[in-house]
Every structure is written in structure tokens, then in C-alpha cells.
Amino acid sequence: MNILVTNNTLTVKLCEDIDHKNALDIRKQIDSEIGKRPIKTLIFDFSGVEFMDSAGIGMILGRYKLLNAIGGMVYINNPTKAVLKIIEISGINKIIPIMYNNESCTCEVK
Amino acid sequence: MKNNYIYTQFKACAENEKLARQIIAHFVSDLNPTLDELCDIKTAVSEAVTNAVIHGYKNKAGIIFMSAEICKNEIIVEISDKGYGISDVEAARQPLFTTQPEMERSGMGFTVMETFMDDLQVYSKPDCGTKIIMRKKIANND
Ligand SMILES: Nc1ncnc2c1ncn2[C@@H]1O[C@H](COP(=O)(O)OP(=O)(O)O)[C@@H](O)[C@H]1O
Ligand SMILES: [Mg+2]
Predict the structure, then answer these.
(1) pTM for the whole thing?
(2) Does ligand 1 come within 6 angstroms of the Cβ of B62?
């Protein structure tokens, strides 16, 4: 997992399976960043994730609610086929925009 | 091999969720599943094992039983726990139903198992445990 911060944008690049075990760690790390800075935009980069189960959906939704409460926004970037499938089944794509944008991977590393 | 089976038992803990889906992925590889089919099966297994860990045993000590069978071109996976059980299975199977919203559960586990597999059966009894049986036919094996 790679966390990049530019201005008020937090980009989280995930490169591992996202299941119950990892979702808890990812959640903790993101929430601690959001606690430290005035983050307005959270971008999940899923280009390196080949496996995600419904724990990932819960983790994304939880961050969406957090950002929503402070007037921020969450985006899903570069989901792989497997990740996109579970995102669509869960319906979270109706509230969280999905984009395919390579730029987010090349932000400055903190 | 067109007929095969395995029986496994392992500790109910988060670390074994990955192990369980890897075991099943390996086992089903005999049927030459596509990457999509393989991913569907792994996801369904992950959901069932996670449920046994966090709901069945509520993260306390316990044993998860997982068996799998290949029968012609079909894989059948059975995952069970001897934990708390489910009082209303029909309600639990509804999308978004969860008894652990504070843990950021999405309530989509059963929906995922149903969608990613061809068939899902859930048997449960409060204070006795829960048994999940899932089946999926692998299309293009020879
Ligand atoms: N093995 C189990 N033992 C006890 N309760 C379970 C088990 N599996 C599922 N449940 C119950 O069914 C509900 C729905 O499960 P699921 O669809 O996987 O959603 P989630 O795990 O996100 O809560 C759970 O919240 C839990 O109350
Ligand atoms: Mg679940």
C-alpha cells in the first residue's frame, strides 16, 4: 500500500488482496492520514489489486461516509476486472465515481 | 482428474481466509477454470470463511471445516463452523443485511456468494453453527 498526498488529495495505491484482514489495516492507515491533514479528496487506485471481497466494499463505503461528512469526495481509479465486478454487484458505483486515469499513480511520493 | 475430494480443518482466524481461497483455487485448477471463474470461486470462499471467523466464532477460538469435491465439471465447496449460528437465514441472505455495521461490514457476503456461484445453500441453527454449500460448473474444461 502506497499513500500519496498532494494538496488536499490523498491517493491510496493498493497492491494486495483486499479481504477482511487487510481491509482493517487499510482503513486504519487512511483514517490516520485524514486525521492529520485537511483531506478533501480520496482516490483509491486499484490497478494493482487482483482480488477483493465484500470487506473491501465495506472499507470503501466507510471512507465514503467519512469524507462525505466533511464535504469531501471519494473516487475509484483503475479498477481491475475482478474489482470492478464486485463494485458493480454491490452498487457502490452509483455513489462513487469510477475513473481510469493513470496520472494518479505518478503523483509525488510523500 | 474428474472426481476428487478434499477435507480440511483449520483455525478460525483472519490469516486463514487467504489460505482457504488458495487451497480451493489450487484444487479446482484441474477443471481448467478461466481466470474469471477462478476469481469468482475464490471470492465466494473468502466470504464464507470470513463469515465463519467473524460471525460464527465472533473472532474467538474455533475450527472451520472446509471440504471440496469435483464431480465431473462441477466444484462443490462446503464450509462450516460450530459457532453462534443464524436465527433468520432468509433475512441474513438479503443484500445489505449485516449484524455488524460498526465493523464496516457491507452485508454483501451472501449476495456475492449467490452471484459468483451457481447455487448456494445455507443451513444454520442458533448455538449449533452454520453450513454453507456452494456449487459452480466450470464451462470449458476438457
Ligand atoms: N457463519 C455465520 N455464523 C453466524 N452468523 C452468520 C454467519 N454467516 C453470516 N452470518 C450472519 O449473516 C449476516 C450477513 O452476512 P453477509 O451477507 O456475509 O454480510 P456481512 O458479513 O457483511 O455482515 C451477518 O451479518 C451475520 O449476522
Ligand atoms: Mg460476510
Answers:
(1) 0.94
(2) no
